[in-house]
Amino acid sequence: MTIDSMTPDDFRALADLLFPDVEKTIADVQAQYPPRDISDGAYVSRFAPSPTGFLHIGAIYTSLMNRMITRNGGVYILRIEDTDQNREIEGGTEQIVEALNRVEMTPAEGPYTSNPLQERGDYGPYIQSERFDLYQIFMKEVVANGWAYPCFMTTEELDEIREQQVKSRVAPGIYGSYARSRQHSLDKIKQKIEAGEEYVMRIKAPNDTNSKIRVDDIVRDKIEMPANNLDAVLLKADGFPTYHFAHAVDDYLMGINIVLRGDEWIPSVPLHVQVNEAIGAPLPMYAHFAPIAKMDGNSRRKLSKRKDPEAAMSYYYENGYPIEAIIDYLLNLMNSSFENWRAENPDAHYEDFDFDLDKLGKASALFDLDKLTSIAKETIAAYTAEEVYEKAVEWAQLYDESYIPILTADKAHSIRVFDIERGGDKPRKDLAKWDEIEEYYGVLFDAFFENYVPAGYADAPEIKNEDMVELLDYLIETTPQTFNEDKMDWLNRMREYAADNGYAKRRKDYKNDPDAYKGWFGDMMMAFRVALTGKTHTPDLYEMVLALGEEKTVARFQRARDHFAS
């Protein structure tokens, strides 16, 4: 009598043979995991990464999607899928927890602190390797109900079958006549177990290749495919479940009613339908979305951790992109209406956005680093100077300690610097990430300033050295006056000085008769800028003087004067 001809009594005997120490039933387990008390229409969803060390931006994209759909009365769960012990890295779970906390996506249930690692919720444990006994209980009952069997085929046999299938140009996998262990009798199985032969547990798929499965999908509308006919592995030789089995058991017990995952899982839907049937679980709602992609020449491809540095979340942390900007950008990839909503609600929390799963595109959203950078500039422009200071120091403590003494030596000065052109109708929008502070604000910190002078003086407009000295004498003399003037009074004074000392007030006047002038007003102010900072592109001149203060400003003008007078 083979597996295919066994009676219900035979399968119960097989289950007892395979799992002699398992006494609990699925009904016993269900009593430990009662149905959730949630409102109608609320979602219970899970983000379920593997602790393999590399956190892809696509993982944060998925996590954010799960968080958004559960924010109104639902439950957002973090579940660690670590049943592949060979791929797990030390500290991998802690890295995932830290990453989610960092982007403010701490789960309602599951691991939520990393040091020490702690979890919360009534439906745990939330780490699969700690749920080993549950999978054994479910598998025993699955076998007893005739849905699974032990497969003793060796690696060599599997390789032989694979080669044979390639030569015959037939579909790969274990099915039909290739499922050799389905030919064993109960006695044969018992002999092999007593002999210590290793085995895996496979689902006993029906041999009917004509039936179809039809599944509703929020993104794809409907999925219709041939039913599963592969005897997929459900438990590995070490007793740990494969993803196909573990996720179905866990989703059932945790009350997951919607599964959001990448469309690469669509081919596995028939198997998952069958597994859910085998364990007696209702099928959750599905939403198979297209993964984030990028253009490679004329074609799209998935963001690759091997080819694309921007695929790793560490890239954004190390470069110092604001977390808020990353979240806003990902939401814009999910729902294009988010951009207009953000423009109309600049101060609102992103969770106030009416996120709609139905608006997820079937095609991959194209990742655009320039767009993210633009959003990051808008994000930082909306911060207060104090927020810029705190976030910049926080980033420096993790990724560039050389910034710390420079930024913290005089906190009040740093905040004055970051307050330049901040606020108002047209705030300055140059800084996109914290590693750009030196580039855009370095001229206002003495330690950075030394990198730009005296070489930077060479960028001054072509004004005679004696005229530069004359201008600098005037600036040294009148700098104290600047602190008693508003910007317009200061600007008008500088224009009058320009006109009185041989500079054209307007560019076109200088262009029409260059020999009549030393330069035009813009040239003179550029000379002022270079003398003060050693650079030609800087924040507003007037605000820089106020931020530096009288003593530093005069000292810089004196240093420039000495240079041009020598």
Explain what the structure shows.
The structure is a single chain. A 3-stranded antiparallel beta sheet has the order 5-6-9. The chain has a two-stranded parallel ribbon with strand order 1-2. The protein starts with 7 loop residues before the first helix and ends with a helix. The protein has helices spanning 8-18, 26-32, 57-70, 92-102, 132-144, 155-168, 186-194, 243-254, 269-279, 313-319, 323-334, 338-344, 369-381, 385-399, 403-408, 411-418, 437-441, 446-449, 465-482, 487-500, 507-512, 521-533, 541-565; strands spanning 44-47, 75-78, 110-114, 117-120, 148-151, 200-203, 212-217, 221-226, 233-235, 258-262, 285-289, 293-296, 299-302, 503-504, 519-520. Helix content is 45%, strand content 11%. The relative contact order is 0.08. The model has no long low-confidence stretch (mean pLDDT 93). By secondary structure, it is mainly α.
Shape: elongated
Give the number of helices.
23
Overall pLDDT level: 93
Instruction: Note the main sheet.
Output: 3 strands, antiparallel
Radius of gyration, CA atoms, in whole angstroms? 34 Å
